[in-house]
Amino acid sequence: MRNSEIAAFFNALADLLEIDGANSFRVRAYRNGARTLDSTNADLTRMVEDEDNLTELDGIGKDLAEKIITIIQTGSLPQLLEMQKKIPAGVVEMLRIPGIGPKKVGTFYRDLKIESLEQLKEAAEKGELAKLKGFGKKTEETIIEGIDTLDLTNRRFYLAEAKGYADEIRNDLLKLESVKQAEVAGSCRRRKETVGDLDVLVTASDSAEAMDALAAHALVDKVIARGDTKQRVRLKNGIELDLRVVPEESYGAALVYFTGSKEHNIVLRRRAQERDLKLNEYGLFKEEKLVAGKTEEEVYQKLDLAWVPPELRESRIEFDLAEADKIPELLELEDIKGDLHMHTTASDGKASIAGMAEAAKQQGLKYIAITDHSKRVMMANGLDGKRLLKHWEEIDRVNEETKGIEILKGIECDILEDGTLDLEDEVLKQGDWVIAVLHYGLKQPRAKIMKRLMTAITNPYVHMIGHPTGRLILKRPGADIDMDEFLKACADHGTLLEINAHFSRLDLSEVHAAAAKDLGIPIVINTDAHSPEGYNVRQYGVYQARRAGLTKADVANTRSWAQMKKLMK
DNA sequence: GCCGTTTTCGGCCCGACTGTTTTCAGTCG
């Protein structure tokens, strides 16, 4: 069973307990535990088999450890089943309505026997909810509108899309006379793979001007809430954006606060408490006196920490590093010297070899590998051995004619469902760069997937596994891989791993990339471009690498091709 | 339910905004 599936048991139980009115710290304990399971690279199924001590994981005590064992051994959790009997699934679903939380949902269920979104909407329309103590007409309207727009408001967005809107609004706010500083904060600034909503922070002499401008902005659909320092709006694409206006002396503290993550902030506040200080979005205070707040650096410094790059603020590794003043110098976009995964018109790309090479040269790259699909990918016009060898001759010819960039003969070779490679070794050995990938049969059981991956890892002519899990963010999960075993095998056989930079892949994830780094596996950041515009996703690969704590040295294609070859088998 | 250089009890992050209230609970981030 996957860690995320086990985490889902705890999150489900937390929802139910919350509606049931359980102790909120107990609820939090389940959510914290779930979060640990989601972000750990440790294979829980394996740990249970090996009888490892689960309580060594953060937020996992005796009780949760036992529940994890139960889940893995039986595939279910009695306490969850019991709660599900008590509270129907439709009740939990009501939590998805914006502005409606567990307390209200609990009241609807207990006092009015409402068990589904449909029943709730009906009750709101009949005015039955307003009869309850503490409820009124506004709440009914919130519920009706919330249910009608549920599909819109519960969406998450690719970082690429969200960041585009946030940057545009930030830049427009910065043009206002009263606005001094403006920054996009939140998960967007942390460069998370997906973004639920946007946060923009400004310092301004006049908060009304910024709020009026935002309300009138072309991207904005409607204002949801507005106070003196905070305004929430919904953009036309459905994403919601919070604007916060803070005084200049609080800008750094506010930036820390609104960048998050929530978990990172909790640790910071605890550190503040331990030092008899109080941290909020207005600054770090000793009693009533402001100790730090103008810059992020001084806030961290007063908490005995080095400044933490936003990408690392997930309460995973950053506090140990910041405390020891060992925050690594993270990878920068300019460090990347080559791109080793792309397509041309030979398979499903839009541009020629020369076209891709010219565009790469414009971006300052020193080398590229042309890696069209192999024959299994029929719909992409994948190449068989004969066509590939001809294609490689053509690449050699174009390379001869092209100055200023080296063009390498590559292939994106499928690992077939039966565990063999789509092309013969006899062909593969003639190329410069061989990527092996899973495209089909991603739903096969773990053992079968692992066998396929091992074929590729141990093949002497396969240099790298591309988009290792095959996931598509917001669309489908990746293959069920035993990551520990997979990474160890790659380390043992000198097989490199990709961070595919496309914003819908970002595969490896940051957790897996960090684990690969720990094993000394060189990471290659590639765009998988199907046209020259496709190169533009490179920055997202770099963000992902930064979130994994990767430096220039950890990434193979920051080197020259000659240097990089020394890392390859 | 978790956790511990004040350890097995008593804490557990903090503030803005809304809607419903006359002082606050619920929700959200």
Task: Describe the protein's architecture and organization.
The model has no long low-confidence stretch (mean pLDDT 92). The strands form four sheets. Strands 11-12-13-14-15-16-17 form a seven-stranded parallel β-sheet. The chain starts with a helix and ends with a helix. The protein folds into four domains: 147 residues, DNA polymerase, domain 1 (Orthogonal Bundle), CATH 1.10.150.110; 89 residues, Beta Polymerase, domain 2 (2-Layer Sandwich); 74 residues, Beta Polymerase, domain 3, CATH 3.30.210.10; 235 residues, Metal-dependent hydrolases (TIM Barrel, Alpha-Beta Barrel). With 569 residues, it is an alpha/beta fold. Helices cover 43% and strands 15% of the residues. The longest helix is centred in the first third of the chain and has 17 residues. α14 crosses α16, α21 packs parallel to α22 and α23 crosses α24. It is built from 25 helices and 17 strands. The structure holds one DNA strand of 29 nucleotides. One of its GO terms (cellular component) is cytosol. It is found in: Cytoplasm. This is DNA polymerase beta. InterPro entries: DNA-dir_DNA_pol_X (IPR002054), DNA_pol_B_palm_palm (IPR028207), DNA_pol_lamdba_lyase_dom_sf (IPR027421), DNA_Pol_thumb_sf (IPR037160), DNA_pol_X_beta-like (IPR002008), HHH_MUS81 (IPR010996), Hlx-hairpin-Hlx_DNA-bd_motif (IPR003583), NT_sf (IPR043519). Pfam families: DNA_pol_B_palm (PF14792), DNA_pol_B_thumb (PF14791), HHH_5 (PF14520), HHH_8 (PF14716), PHP (PF02811).
